[in-house]
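SAMPLE LOG
Freezer: B-3
Tube label: C17
Construct: single chain, 190 aa
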Amino acid sequence: MIPVPQRENRLMLPTAKPLLSTTAFAVSLLWSAASAQPAASSHIVTSQKLDWSTAAALASEAVRICAAQGYSVTATVVDTTGHEQAVIKGDTVPLQSLSVAYRKAYTAYSYGLAFNKNTTSELIAAGVTGPANGALNTIPEVLFVPGGVTLRRTSDHVILGGLGVSGAPGGDKDEACALHAVEKFRAQFQ
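STRUCTURE (predicted):
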């Protein structure tokens, strides 16, 4: 066994003490600076979105409107995180309508936010589908097909999410159902 010299241990203690003093000093400075901040300053971020019942009613209304025209569709509402908040599936829709409705809602929300457009049709008309090589179309959630509507607060147009509809024979019909549903509930987007 090799003895450890006492002197080595004593050398470590003096270097640790100034480090603790420096750390304590830095913490006290940070604490003082944080205390001096106005009370309104917060490190909490909040976002606005529809409540679950309005999201579900909106999706249900889009499915109902399309069903009245003889179209079985899926309607999806995404919130401001881009995640599904409500999904209503018609009785006889094909399986792919679930993912397509989500992708239309996601595209209407995320690209509506980025390019200030209200529908996926407006995004397409504005040429937002990306460069000629189709780079934006390679993002898995993005789908530049009519049928998505950007959801906005009525008072200041803050984006609350997106609604996507899929399953009618044509994206124009999907989008019409989505727009009618949004119009019916727009007053609740406060």
